[in-house]
Amino acid sequence: MTVIRANMAKLPESWTWGKLGDVLSNNGKSIIPNKNPDELFELYSVPKYDHGLPEVVYGKEIGSNKQIVKKDAVLLCKINPRINRVWIVGDHSPYQKIASTEWIPFFKREGINPKYLCYFMKNDHFRDFLSSNASGV
Fold it and tell me: Residue 6 domain-assigned?
């Protein structure tokens, strides 16, 4: 079924419209890093976002549950939608990649470029949409 909306921009021929929920997958797994105290992890945390690089830390230094992420996952910060934090998981070390639970991970999918998804999520229209639909304290 094709839905045509008058206010939708015309896309290049090989592109299609979709919903953000179509690229969100709940196949992430939790991990308790301090159960592996001597293992090193590549940690994507909100405080390290401004530095542009994740930190490499021992499991014993991590005090809470994290989520396992993979290279090219797009992380959307859910703490405050007005603060524009979107991060693409890189490959900065040989260690397992984990992210704090303040991130919503969008795992790489066929046909979706992580850089474009990141660009889209940093767009003012998307940020305004998130802000207008956010609830909680």
Answer: no
Q: Pick from 22, 30, 121, 115: which is nearest to 72 by CA?
A: 115
Tokens encoding 62? 């991590």
Q: Between 40 and 4, name the one with better pLDDT.
A: 40
Residue 88 lies in a domain: yes
Residue where the block lists tokens 């094709």: 2
Domain count, the chain: 1
Beta bridge partners of 67: 30, 99
Choose among 87, 80, 78: nearest CA to 50.
87
Q: Is residue 22 part of a domain?
A: no
Cα 136 from Cα 40, distance rounded (Å) = 34
pTM of this prediction?
0.82
Neighbours of 64 (CB within 10 A): 9
Residue 88 pLDDT > 80, yes or no? yes
| Alpha helix segments (H runs only) across the chain | 46-49, 114-122, 124-133
CA distance 29 to 7: 38
State which residues form the domain around 55.
29-132
Residue 67 placed within a domain? yes
